[in-house]
Amino acid sequence: MNITQQNLVAFIQKNSMLLQLPGPTTCFRSADYSQYQKFKLEDDTSSLIVLDWFTSGRMSRGERWEFANYKSGIDILIGDEEKLIFRDVVLLKNDESKQYNNNNNNNNILMNQLEPYDCFATLIIYGPKVIPLIDHILNEFNKIVINKTNKIIDLTWSVSSLCSREKEKENGVVIKIAGITTEMVKNFLIENALKGLDCIIDDDLFERAL
């Protein structure tokens, strides 16, 4: 089986900002896909927003979690010594010996593990230029009241702090999102996770970003 690979290396200079806001990766049936992204920050004045998200497949064609393999890796480094401040790897592997069809998904390992969600996202927000976004999402997360329930939640998300090794104060966040539809995740990104970005960049650019 042929592997589709994509690699990206980006360098963010001091007092600069990079926005990496692509559309979601959607793998077709039996696809084997791998990507790796490395972001090098010159120092703590560099800022970065990275979105890495994927769907369960070409749902309009009845394909859900039917790809063979999906791997996505992200490294973020800072300074001349390239100190690693963040690493994330998503690895999803199906049983290639199974033949999936619309009438028999009982042996679909990924579907059994990940349903009812069809879209997953990782959003990284880091640096001084995006402090308003960081403060907003932390405040929103602190408002969440966790109740024990067996009810399926249409969209769920969590936030972790991201700190450089050169500073004790947190200067970034990592947001993990899972939604039952791609549109639901997209709306959350626009209306919540990236709220205020249009005040930092041009309005037209923000509207085209997602």
TrEMBL record:
GO molecular function, one term: nickel cation binding
This protein's UniProt keywords: Chaperone
Protein family (similarity comment): Belongs to the UreD family.
The protein's name in its UniProt record: Uncharacterized protein
Organism: Diversispora epigaea
